Amino acid sequence: MTKERYIGSLPKIGIRPTIDGRRRGVRESLEETTMNMANNVAKFLSENLKYYNGEPVACVIADTCIGGVAEAAQAAEKFKKEGVGVSLTVTPCWCYGSETMDTDPHLPKAVWGFNGTERPGAVYLAASLAGYNQKGIPAFGIYGHDVQDAGDPTIPKDVQEKLLRFAKAGLAAAMLKGKSYLAMGSVSMGIAGSIVKDDFFQEYLGMRNEYIDMSEFVRRMDLEIYDKEEYEKALQWADENLTIGEDINKEEFKRTDEEKRSDWERSIKMTLIARDLMIGSDKLKEMGFEEEANGHNALIAGFQGQRQWTDYFPNGDFMETFLNSSFDWNGKRAPYILATENDSLNGVTMAMGNLLTNTAQVFADVRTYWSPDAVKRVTGKELTGKAANGIIHLLNSGSAALDGTGRQQIDGKPVMKPFWDITDEEVKETLENVQFRLASTEYFRGGGYSSDFTTQGDMPVTIARINYVKGLGAVLQIAEGHTVELENDMHDTLDLRTDPTWPTTWFVPNLTGKGAFTDVYSVMNNWGANHCALSYGHIGDDLITLASILRIPVNMHNVEASRIFRPSAWNMFGTDQPEAADYQACKNFGPLYK
Ligand SMILES: C[C@H](O)[C@@H](O)[C@@H](O)C(=O)CO
Ligand SMILES: [Mn+2]
C-alpha cells in the first residue's frame, strides 16, 4: 500500500454569500436569492473541478449570509475548521464593504458581484474591491458582461470562466502551502536552480525545505529499507513491459551484463526509495522503520544525481520518469513531481502546471534552437508547416513523464490526460513507443537507463519556467505553442547530433511578432535557464493567474489580453502596459507569505 501523494486533507473552497444587513425588509427579501447563488456556485465548482486524485473539489458555504462583521468572523471560523484554502464571496446585492470582507491575507480571494440592477451586486463588488485594495489584500473581481434578471440562477459563460480560472489557481496556491520541497542531494553541476532558495519557498509559496544526502539511497538499498514485495512486483513488471534499447557506448566504456542488470534493479529500488522519502510509506512502518515511514511531506522533490551520484551509481532517469508519469507497476495514479538535477525552480514550475491541470509534466533541457537555414544545411530539407519558422529541441532528462509521448488521445488527437481518463490501451501504446536506453557512460559512469521517445506532433502545449533574480525575486516566463514532428530522417539527423538516448520534444512557440515572441529564436534567446517544464494544453492564462496570487511577475508570455485574469488591484498600477503594472503590483504587495 503506497500513501497518497498529498498528505493531509485537501484545501476546500469557502463560499461567502454577503448580503445587505438591514433587517425588516431588505435583508429578508434577499436571503434566499443570496444563499441560492452560493449553492449554485458551489455546485458548479464541484461539478467542474477535480483534485489531483480525481475527486471533485469540495466547497464549504458559510452557515448564514454575511451581513456584517460578526457573521464575517463566524464564516472565517468555520472556514478554518473546515480547512478552507480559497475564499469566494458572492452576492446579488449591495452589502457593506469592509464590514463583510474576508480579511485573511493568505487566502486567495475573489468576489462575484451579480450584474443586475434591481439590486446592485456590482456596486458592492466595486466597493469591496476598493476596500481590499486600500487594505493591501489583493482580490479578483468577477462581474458578468451582460445584465441578468434578479434571481436568475444561471452562471453566465464569462463568469464561469473566471470562477474556474480563479478557483483552479487559488487551489493550486493552497495546495503548495505547508508542503515541502525535498532536495535529494545538493547542487548539480553548479546549476543555479539547484541552489535551493529557501526564502523563495517560504515567502512566495508558504513551503518548507527539506534536505537529504544521497547516501540515504545507499543505506536504504543496502539495508533493504523499501517494500520488498512491491520491488519484486515492479521488477517483474519492468522486465515484462519495458523495452531496453541499444547500448551505443564505445566498447571500452560499455558496462558489463552484470552491471547492467544491477543498474536496472537499482533504478527500480531508487524509484521506491525516492517516493518513500517524499511521502512516506505505511509498509516501512510495518517493517519497523517508523521514522522513515513518515517521509518528508514533499509535494515536490529534486534529485541532484550528477555528479557525485552518477559517477558511481545509475543515474536518476528511470526513477524520475516513473515518478513523474501517470502510471507505474501499480497502475494509473497521480504523478509525483520530481525535478532532474535538483532544479528546484523547474520543480516548482512543474508543480504549478500539474496542480492547474492534474496532468503529468515534462521536464526538459531547452537544448537547441534550430533555424530553418541550419536545418536545411544539416538535413538538406526544409522545415514546413508549423515548424517552418524554426524549432526548439527540448531534450533530456529523466524527468520527462512518459505521458509526454503523446500516446493518449481525445477525438483521435494526441493529448495528455489526468490519470483517471487514461485507458489501459493508452498505457500499452505509450510503453510500446518508449525504449529504456543505456546511459552514455562518458557522462554517467555509473550507468542507468533513460527513457527515449519522441513526442507526437500537433499537441497544444505550454512551456514555462520560474527564474530567480537577486534584488527582484522570482519571475515566471511562459510560451504557449505546439509540438511538431519531423520526418524520420530529419529527426534522426538532428537527434543523433546530441545524445539520442534521451526523450525529444520538438517545440514551436506561437509567435506574436513582438518582443520575446518576434520569432522562434527570440523565445530561445529569452529563456532564463537551461530547463523548462512542459504542460499539455494552452495554460498560460492559468499560470498567469496563479503567478499573480503568489506575486510572481511574468516577464514574457504570448497569452492574448482577453484571457488574462489578475486581481483588480493590478489595474491600479496602470492599464496601458500590463507587464509593467504586473511588476509594480507584485513588488508593492510582496510575496504572499512575506
Ligand atoms: C549529461 C549532461 O550533464 C546533461 O545532464 C546536461 O546537459 C544537463 O542536463 C544540464 O541541465
Ligand atoms: Mn538538465
Blueprint of the fold:
Layout: E1 12-17, H1 26-48, E2 59-61, H2 69-82, E3 84-91, H3 97-100, E4 109-113, H4 121-135, E5 140-142, H5 157-176, E6 180-184, H6 198-205, E7 208-212, H7 215-222, H8 228-241, H9 257-279, H10 282-286, H11 290-293, E8 298-303, H12 317-324, E9 327-328, E10 331-332, E11 337-340, H13 344-357, E12 362-370, H14 372-379, E13 391-395, E14 408-410, E15 413-415, H15 424-432, E16 435-438, E17 449-452, E18 460-469, E19 473-484, H16 488-496, E20 504-509, H17 520-525, E21 531-536, H18 540-550, E22 554-556, H19 578-589
Parallel strand pairs: 1-2, 1-3, 3-4, 4-5, 6-7, 6-8, 8-11, 19-22
Antiparallel strand pairs: 9-10, 12-13, 12-21, 13-20, 14-15, 16-17, 18-19, 18-21, 19-20
The structure holds L-Fuculose open form (CVU) and manganese (II) ion.
Subcellular location: Cytoplasm
Cofactor: Mn(2+)
EC number: 5.3.1.25
Description:
- The chain is an alpha/beta fold and 594 residues long.
- It has two domains: 12-176, Rossmann fold (3-Layer(aba) Sandwich), CATH 3.40.50; 180-589, L-fucose/L-arabinose isomerase, C-terminal (L-fucose Isomerase, Chain A, domain 3, Alpha-Beta Barrel).
- The protein contains 19 helices and 22 strands.
- A six-stranded antiparallel barrel has the order 12-13-20-19-18-21. The protein has a five-stranded parallel β-sheet with strand order 2-1-3-4-5, sandwiched between helices. The chain has a four-stranded parallel β-sheet with strand order 7-6-8-11, sandwiched between helices.
- Helix 9 packs across helix 12.
- The longest helix is centred in the first third of the chain and has 23 residues, at 26-48.
- The mean pLDDT is 97.
- It binds L-Fuculose open form (CVU) and manganese (II) ion.
- Manganese (II) ion is lined by residues 340-341, 365, 396-397, 530-531.
- Manganese (II) ion binds at residues 340-341, 365, 396-397, 530-531.
